[in-house]
């Protein structure tokens, strides 16, 4: 099994992309009062306490809300189901929100037994008649005296307020960055991209444009409605980064590239892209995890409407050969719950200052295959911008990316870690003293639990970087990583 040739099996990350119940009233006939001096007893309150939960209409989205007062016995209240999104690597989980009937009984008043009770009832009825008549008379007089009826439908709309966008809000981020996000179309599908120079250099995913390598057509659609043809400058399947150039354009709005080495789990992020050909779609979420090793398999032709499929989050071994590079993709990914769908690939993941912190690249979607693509279940993956920027600079300068190498073949150790299987002659690992059978458990301060995690950690480094490897034996060694150009057709 090998360090940079994942062919992993397992779950497949896919590259992107009540009415209230009626209150019942129960009437009770009053028996003839008995004679005597017993004073009338005070009847109990005719209403039992109703449901005291959240008022109807104010619940969480997707939940049926019980009314404040339930119906009579035998009446079933409205019921519903809340369907949560698909669970990671599994099916949909459904929460049954049925609410059992809550019955409200009107207590029967005790019989009135005294003559005084008759008098009280009579006076009450008379008072009600007088009160009702007075109310009707007052309403009539008000209407006759020209009382004004207010109709909100006829009220003028308030003036527009252009200053109501809060700095650092999702709206603010979208307004700043959306003009620098483009939709990229090939004969096989669509994706997104980020304008990085005013004359048309665009950063995107390799799998978005790979089907156009060798002279295929690429179209770039800008946010202002303009379109342009584009050509591939360079691409790197191992990191899923590509650079293209839109032709005959100038004065474009560019995105600001931030940094990804200071991200915090839980911080808010925004994604912009073209999911399912819906250009300019904005979603938001948080950073769910960092340094997530994601094996999306080897390069392959894009699927229809294509955001090509990857191989899986497998733990198969990886290899790095000093003279040859694989076309496998193992990401050192930022995980986010911002909604990312097929078509978001290549678009930006942004912090709340509107800076690009990642390139959206893959999603975990249950039931996906090369013929059928699923949607977001809240598990999306982005390439850290520090790595994407380094690769893009290499491509701009030389037309090729450089793959970072340790020079080993590794597999998963039974006790955890990456087990060294072979060592490339003259490579960084051999010079550091690594031997077959060694188990790497840490790279610098980063825990290594699988072969994929070692590959992702190496990919996150630059050629020439010095790293400290900790072995299961407790021994530590230092290695200076090397690099080799990625030879692919542009």
How does this model look, in words?
Belongs to the peptidase S1C family. It is an enzyme of class 3 (hydrolase). Keywords: Hydrolase, Membrane, Protease, Transmembrane, Transmembrane helix. With 490 residues, this protein is α+β, with helices and mostly antiparallel strands. It has a domain at 178-255: Beta Barrel (Thrombin, subunit H). 14% of the residues lie in helices and 29% in strands. It contains six helices and 26 strands. It has helices at residues 115-144, 170-177, 206-209, 385-398, 428-432, 451-459, and strands spanning 2-3, 13-14, 81-86, 92-96, 181-185, 190-195, 201-204, 219-221, 227-236, 241-246, 256-257, 268-273, 281-298, 318-319, 328-336, 348-350, 355-364, 380-384, 402-405, 408-412, 418-423, 439-443, 446-447, 466-471, 476-480, 482-485. The strands form five sheets. Strands 1, 14, 20, 21, 22, 23, 24 and 25 form an eight-stranded mixed beta sheet that branches. The chain is globular. Residues 4-12, 17-130, 300-317 and 319-326 have low confidence and may be disordered.
